[in-house]
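A.,

Following up on our hallway conversation. Structure tokens first:
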């Protein structure tokens, strides 16, 4: 529907003569003013619209009428150019305003170029959700943590519980077991929330052998889940002096390969799940007494170098709670010379003679590895527990 198309221009002064004023051009909202014997007619007013920015802007003002001397007509609000005693003023670009009148043989003033503005009306599918459970906070998005100006409600679970939805809708859910973010539709029902425990490290079982760490437990809300990380691998030494590295374990993020004391026994890191986490670092054949770093949600674990353990892979940042927080860093590998650092996001550091550092609680990060040699070996660090955060627009 065309609500505004334009109005008539004003009449020139009927008396004529060299000093008579010309009529103003019509605007989108009003007719142009008539010229008089002493003044050029003003351009008609343009139409107001807030469709472009949310604030009122005028478009389509008429150009002012010319006059040989004295007072030419003013341009109409909305980009209309003023009339001149010689050359008129051009209409403002992208307003559709008319050019001001020009006297005699001077170059005519151009009208302003037009503009096309399309505004869509969208329905926020996330708005309208009503729910309870967990620790509830609110914040307003600033563009980096959600839609600018949009209000959000956040439910955070640091231990298992129930998320009860009374009005169904779409939510954003951060489920940290091995890492992962998903958009999820939750029906009006009581949804079980499971915050996964970190993988438990295993102690040495003989003077020369260890057990792989346990995989982390998945975190979930309703039918949506994120798997836990892979348990840390070990090096197993037998009484004949052969100490072979074990391959890393697969998981949401893979664990690093275990250590070896022989240049002929390397091993690969465990694989992560695409979109959730990365694989662990490997133990090359030229390395011994050191383990690869565990994979993080944001990067692979580092490989060992000689007798130095690999660093844990970096975690991944999320602003679902309103502030940027990094989760799911990989655990550092043990090292006979230098142990690997934990990955950003809560990964525990590796060690050579003391227990590995545990992953930070409620980050889903891996624990650091520890070197096992005879009875002097130490247990690796446990993985950090997960977290479940649910956000929706209000």
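Then the amino acids I'd put at each of the 394 positions:
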């Amino acid at each position: 529907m065309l609500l505004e198309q334009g109005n008539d221009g004003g009449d020139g002064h009927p008396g004529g003569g060299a000093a008579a004023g010309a009529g103003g051009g019509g605007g989108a909202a009003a007719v142009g003013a008539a010229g008089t014997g002493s003044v050029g007619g003003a351009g008609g007013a343009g139409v107001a619209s807030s469709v472009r920015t949310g604030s009122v802007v005028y478009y389509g003002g008429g150009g002012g009428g010319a006059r040989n001397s004295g007072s030419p007509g003013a341009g109409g609000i909305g980009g209309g150019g003023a009339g001149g005693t010689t050359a008129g003023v051009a209409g403002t670009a992208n307003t559709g305003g008319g050019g001001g009148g020009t006297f005699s043989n001077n170059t005519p003033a151009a009208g302003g170029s037009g503009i096309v503005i399309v505004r869509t009306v969208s329905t926020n599918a996330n708005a309208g959700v009503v729910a309870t459970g967990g620790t509830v906070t609110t914040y307003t998005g600033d563009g980096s943590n959600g839609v600018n100006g949009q209000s959000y409600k956040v439910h955070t679970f640091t231990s298992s519980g129930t998320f009860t939805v009374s009005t169904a809708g779409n939510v954003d859910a951060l489920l940290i077991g091995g890492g992962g973010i998903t958009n999820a539709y939750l029906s009006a029902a009581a949804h079980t929330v499971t915050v996964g425990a970190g993988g438990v490290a295993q102690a040495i079982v003989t003077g020369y052998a260890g057990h792989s760490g346990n995989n982390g437990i998945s975190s979930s809300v309703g039918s949506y889940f994120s798997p836990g990380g892979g348990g840390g691998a070990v090096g197993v030494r037998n009484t004949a002096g052969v100490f072979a590295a074990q391959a890393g374990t697969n998981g949401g993020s893979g664990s690093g390969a275990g250590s070896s004391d022989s240049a002929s026994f390397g091993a690969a890191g465990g694989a992560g799940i695409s979109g959730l986490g990365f694989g662990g670092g490997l133990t090359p054949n030229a390395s011994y007494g050191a383990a690869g770093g565990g994979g993080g949600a944001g990067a692979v674990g580092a490989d060992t170098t000689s007798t130095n353990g690999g660093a844990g892979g970096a975690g991944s940042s999320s602003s679902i709670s309103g502030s940027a927080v990094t989760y799911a860093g990989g655990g550092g590998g043990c090292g006979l010379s230098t142990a690997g650092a934990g990955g950003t996001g809560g990964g525990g550091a590796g060690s050579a003679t003391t227990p590995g550092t545990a992953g930070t609680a409620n980050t889903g990060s891996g624990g650091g590895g520890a070197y096992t040699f005879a009875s002097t070996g130490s247990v690796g660090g446990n993985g950090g527990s997960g977290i479940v955060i649910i956000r929706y627009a209000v």
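The two ends are 33 Å apart (CA to CA). Curious whether your intuition agrees with the design.

B.
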